[in-house]
Structure formats: structure tokens, C-alpha cells
Amino acid sequence: MWRGNSLRPNRLCARSIGLYWRNELRRHISSNRKQRMTEHIEAIPTTEYEATGLNGNGAASRNTLRYIILGLLGAHPMSGYDIKQAFDRALASYWNAGNSQIYTTLKSLSDAGLVESEVIVQKSRPNRKVYRLTAAGKDELDRWLRESVPERFSKDEFLTRLFFCGETSAEITLQHLLEHRASLLKQLEHMEWARQQYATRPTRRPRLLEYQMLVREYKEAELRAGLEVTERAIARVTLEQEQQRQ
Question: Model-level pTM?
Fold first, then answer.
């Protein structure tokens, strides 16, 4: 009896210790896995579209993305997350890029010696990998800015479909026009939001902000012109529908 009673607590203690170290090991593995995911998973292309960077212009699009990122880093050092936020908040109306495209491009720029990175250790938050331009990156950005802008030709899915809408019904045509109008209004709403966010924001580089706002003026004028034509087209197709019912 004495021997059995003495062993039972020891066995329970050993089991508790085993459970403790098993849980510690799981937490350690989970922490390492999360850290690796934070640093690497967004850089893995999830689709062929994102892997190639194609958005209708192929290699030209990928090259332009390189210089957009160089330009953003030319303003100040940024993490990959910061760059994605800049696309979503400031560039979304005229250029977009997914996480995998951004991180793949950053790796390419780093391999080429155009950017360098530094891991910023943070106690209460995950560590940040911050990128900045090298001297070679600044020279490359300057060279691109001096180049003449190539002839602009963009592929437009909406206009391509509208081109053939004479072969379908007025109902389908009107559906495309209404969806296009909704898209234009959404983009204009974003432009207004961007103006309110950035136009009066204090900045240490007012000349840079001046040209960024000029780009928004160009884009807003383009969107409003497109909206005006779309409204006339909607009225025309609606009238066509009414005449067919008579």
C-alpha cells in the first residue's frame, strides 16, 4: 500500500510535466509557423494571373509595377503591407496590384540591388520588414521618369462587349450600361474620399503631393466624362425598350 500510494502522485506529476512540454512545443511550432506565414505566404502566387502580373498589358504591366514600387519607396521606406495599403488607398483608381505581385516584385528588386530591406523588431507587434531604395534604385527610378511615355493603349472589357451589343437584346445592353455606371460612381466616390484624406493632410513633401493630386484630377475628369456618355447611352437604350413595347 505504501509503495502504490507513493508512485501514484509521481506518475501524475510526470504526466502533468509531459502535457506541459507537449503544449509548449505546440505553441512554439504554431508561433514559428505564423511567423513564416507572415513573411512568406503572401509572396506565393495564388493564381497564374497573379504569378505573371498580367492585367491586360503583360510584360509592360510588370515593368510598370516595378517603377511604381520604386516610386513609393522613393518617398519613404515602406513594408510590403504599407505598399499594399498605398495601392488600395491612393492608386486603386488607376492601377492595382495583389499581395503576391507586390512581394514577388520586391524580391526581384532586392535581387537586382535596387532596394534593400531591414527587419524592425517590435515587442508588442509582429516584426516588420521595411524596404528602402538603394542608390542604384534611385538612379533607375530617375531613368524611368526621364523616359518618354509609350503610346497608351489599354484593353477594356466593358467597351469590347458594348461593341457587340448590337447583336443582343436591349435588356442585356442596359444591364451592362447600368453595371458600368455603378462602377464609375464607385470610383468617383473613392476619388472624393482620397481628396478628403490627402488634400489637406500635412506633408513634408508638398511638391510630391501636388502632382499626386494632379493625377487625381485627370482621373476624376476621365471618370466624369465616361459617366456622362454612359448616362446618355442608358437613356437611349431605355427609349429603345419603350419603343419596342409599343
Answer: 0.60
